[in-house]
Amino acid sequence: MAEAVIEIVLEKLSSLIQKELGLFFGFDQNFKRLASLLTTIKATLEDAEEKQFSDKAIKDWLQKLKDAANVLDDILDECATDALEFEYEGLKCGLPYKVQSSCLSSFHPKHVVFRYKINKKMKGIRERLDEIAEEKNKFHLTEIVREKRSRVLEWRQTTSIISQPKVYGRDGDKDKITDFLVGNASGSKDLSVYPIVGLGGLGKTTLAQHIFNHERVIKHFELRMWVCVSEDFSLKRMTKSILESASGKPCDDADLEFLQRKLLGFIQSKRYLLVLDDVWDDKQENWQRLRSVLACGGTGASILITTRLVKVAEIMGTIPLHDISKLSDKDCWELFKQRAFAPNEEEAAELVVIGLEIIKKCGGVPLAAIALGSLLRFKRKETEWLFVKESKLWSLQDEDYVMPALRLSYLHLPVKLRQCFALCALFSKDEKISKQFLVELWIANGFISSNEK
């Protein structure tokens, strides 16, 4: 993120210098010195961004740099705003901009005061950045030249629509669960709850998607519903979400009594399948209240849940949990290869050798293999693949094979897109985000500018 802020500030400095506003304010040398200083620091930020995950001192240094850059950004905004105000006043008097700059700025009391105030701020931030630049030298950071990247990774959505067309290493899991769900019609009249448990990134959602869309399952159940649960397991929210999935229509906000009765009308005596994906709530009373509403289905009605927590599976499940295992290196390679190489592309032998070594670092986690395959999709230099294989981020995994892969993907996003991606953290997990609102937030924060279209 520090690199993104520095880039924005450098663009503003360049713009102010080109418009000769530095001369207008008497800050021309300050602007040029700051631009040179920030350019020097920026050259090593690529290395610092990666090393911050293993070196707290570098992480703290990046935060100080980011804070200072934000202060400078505010100062530059003040300069640009004051210049616009002065230009507007001059235009009202019928004076061209060049005349305003050369004649009026020296005599206008308002701008004399402004220059004094900004000059004081500029001196303070310049000294602060000088100290930060000096501190940088002790980290022995390497200058890395970043190549332009034109494509952005797309991240999976948690819905019933199959996001991974081909699943590797899960045929046994899929057949076992499908056989249970389809063969449950003549069993107990009690509601069956089948829990799928596994670490993050193992493909629980993908497995559930394939079961949900299996031809036998589609034919067997009268009604199929899918709800992404996440962390909000409130009875009203869950009832409304299940009702919307059952009806296929958005549901107006109403009291719980109305929602429950409407849901009962959809599922009463029906053999339905409900998938509750990504369940985290481990409060037994919350589940019991929801279960009492869902228990009105017909014989063979079933619920399939996915969760990372064994406790959740034990609370909700009516049969022993289904623990999905890590994939073999062979299956992970197939997933990786599917993303890293184009269809019908001849796989370069040297890249295959490096790729197989990268796969060993994925620890059998499909999401890690998919993320790294996507990352390397448009890279064909051995050095680029070796960079991923030899990254120090792998030493930080501590049984978590997903985060190093995702961090590597993040570090390979174009700098301007990193901050756009990071801003999404303002939204709650699984919250629906309006594209227009998100773009407006990016613009308001200065992350993107208009191309006059």
Secondary structure elements and their pairing?
Layout lengths: L1 H17 L2 H5 L2 H15 L2 H7 L4 H37 L4 H8 L4 H28 L34 H12 L9 E6 L6 H9 L2 H6 L2 E8 L4 H13 L8 H12 L4 E8 L4 H11 L7 E6 L2 H7 L5 E2 L5 H12 L8 H12 L5 H10 L6 H8 L12 H10 L3 H9 L11 H10 L9
Parallel strand pairs: 1-4, 1-5, 2-3, 3-4
Word description of this protein:
With 453 residues, this protein is of the alpha/beta class. It has 3 domains: 2-139, no CATH class; 171-323, Rossmann fold, CATH 3.40.50; 329-412, no CATH class. 57% of the residues lie in helices and 7% in strands. The protein has 21 helices and 5 strands. The protein has a 5-stranded parallel beta sheet with strand order 2-3-4-1-5, sandwiched between helices. Strand 3 (272-279), helix 13 (284-294) and strand 4 form a beta-alpha-beta unit. The longest helix is centred in the N-terminal third of the chain and has 37 residues, at 56-92. The radius of gyration is 29 Å and the shape is globular. The two termini are 27 Å apart. The model is unreliable at 95-106 and 145-157 (pLDDT under 50).
